[in-house]
Hints:
transcription; about 500 residues; single chain; elongated; about 55% helix; Sig_transdc_resp-reg_receiver
Amino acid sequence: MGPNGNRYKVVVVDDEAVAVKAICCIIENQCPEFEVVGTAGNGSEALELIGRTSPDLVLTDVEMPVLNGLELVREASGRQPNLCFCIISGYQDFEYARDAFRGGVLDYLTKPIVPSQMLRTMKNVEEKLRKFYYDRRVGIFRKICMGETIALEEIQAFFPYKEFYAALLRENGLPRRYSPAKEPELYGTMDEAYMVYGRDNMEELFLIPREVLGQQPLIDYMTRVERRQKTEGSYTTLLYYGEPFSGPEISEKIRDLYYWLNTLSTVGLSQVADLDNKRLLMERVPSPDITELTGILQELEQYAKTGRYDQIQKCIAKAFAGWEEEKRPQIWLEQAMRRILSFIRTQTREEESLIESEYQFEDAFYYSTSMEMLWQNLYTPFRHLTEKEKENYKVDSPEFFEKIKIYLSEHISEPLSLQAISNLFAISQAYMSKLFRKYTRQSYNQYLTGIRIERAKQLMDENRALFVKDIAEMVGYRDQFYFSRIFHSYTGQSPADYIK
């Protein structure tokens, strides 16, 4: 189907009326995914027809009067860069039309037209068009999500539905901004009727045409999605526009979704917010004063001067308890903790590189599912202040790390959160993350997702009769649709296409 869910529109161009009739007959009777919206006898007539009908595909003969097929391809491509072509010619020498294949031509047919050959070609063209429109929609959607300005005409061409709903679902903390071990972006598959994009595999932004959702309230649908995908022990932030909006508003709505995610996201606190009700939203936004940190830092300085490092830890823990009660958002906590940790480094002359410290800082917010866990992860590098020595560094060995990898491989169908694995091996989450960066150059999530996808591929190779739902469960995913998006992001194929 075309970008609007209807049949692909076709223009047929040939100076032989018999050939035009034969092609149209085959398409109308045996190609349900296509409809002929017009015919032309030469390239000049075709240009005018293309301008009026905006087809998805042009089937054109090469040898024609006035303007031949190759000239038509070049001229029409310049006016409509997204237009696709299929060349028809009595010339069986592909070198003749080689240049055309560099300019939007998807396939090649030879005369006389044989129905079986044309059906194979149209099936091939259908798959290419389907992927073409998918890639274009994904590219435009990603640009919108990245804040780029997209021409209204382009949005309307590839998102032609009249009205949409939008929702943003995030598990745990905000995306990393500096870590080199960022997870691949997440995209919906070609088989889904709506668009999905995530800056990593902990996030999904949904753009759903109103026709697809029907009478079902968006919040009901998204609540089911959240329940299927939520990892045990995690927290989620679900933001949505429950009222439909028009295509020209897509960019604005998506910007708002990201803005409110940054504003509201709070470590350990699951939240649901309807962005259509801005008045209630504003009441939920805390307005803490960063200057309160001055008093805390002065208190810490006094403790540091007298060597009372145990009191430093208690002071910060007390502040954390207050911030948790007040539901301080992650953005504010990041500001506060950067100042506090910078002070601690200054007092202790900590030798950890600033780059490694930043990675640990990001990981702490990314993986922590409660304020208590966040404090433990942030303070881990400085725990030697009160314990006289650093964390047991004998675990920093290839042999120890190999045990972790073996365990993950043998329990791949289980949830395997970073917290659970860290507890199992009796080390902190911060230190576990550091081990994965050191030995795999990946984050824990990225490594785990990678071995899950490789196991899924292995299962598909060994038994192609398995259902995608069963494979998803065998490698640790409860939601087959979420698994399909992850699989596609890592391999470039949907599980269904891979099994083929």
